[in-house]
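Batch manifest line 206
LIGAND: guanosine-5'-triphosphate
JOB: complex structure
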Amino acid sequence: MTTEPTLGVILAGGLARRMGGGDKPMRQIGGRTILDHVVERFSPQCDALVLNANGDPGRFAAFDLPVVADTVADNPGPLAGVLAALDWAAENRPEIKWVVSVAGDCPFLPRDLVARLHEARMRENAALAVAASGGRTHPVIGLWKVALRSDLRHALVDEDMRKIDRWTARYPLATVEWPAVPVDPFFNANTVEDLSEAEGLAKIAG
Ligand SMILES: Nc1nc2c(ncn2[C@@H]2O[C@H](COP(=O)(O)OP(=O)(O)OP(=O)(O)O)[C@@H](O)[C@H]2O)c(=O)[nH]1
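JOB STATUS: finished
ARTIFACT:
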């Protein structure tokens, strides 16, 4: 249940170098792709959902989601995926003023992610909100205001902004903490070893 219409974006535009390339979200955990896990947890929290990925969108056809590519070239990092989603919302769903981003390699996302991010940014009168667990923030998991899309484009294109934290530091930012036990909801699979660890975690994740 969201407080305001919200577009969800699953970021899958990275190069997965630590896993030897390919699409991390298409790797399997517990007999299903990580993307299946992400969609199952995230989709009910959003009013619309898109997948941010580059290259042939046909490889994700089974998910029946709009696939939105980066509009800034050369894989400049996750902010490019956030910008693509903010632009998609403005152009396709003008009634939606907020976007929540998640990483496509996080199979155990909280089921109250969107609600708690909104709650915190309203309580703190912030323009943005970011998720944290175990005392660490997860800059790619956040709530973004569609109205900031021109600022973000300017930062990415003209200032060569790469680090999410450097950009969010310009705005009032709420941080929302989730418990990291028994399973860190922001565990992400970067390596083949992480995939084996995730097999065990999947058995205890709520
Ligand atoms: N759209 C977009 N998303 C990106 C880009 N780089 C990383 N991401 C996404 O940001 C999130 C975190 O990415 P990382 O795990 O740090 O990077 P990665 O490229 O996926 O993996 P490594 O190459 O192993 O670092 C993931 O959801 C990625 O798909 C990019 O250039 N464009």
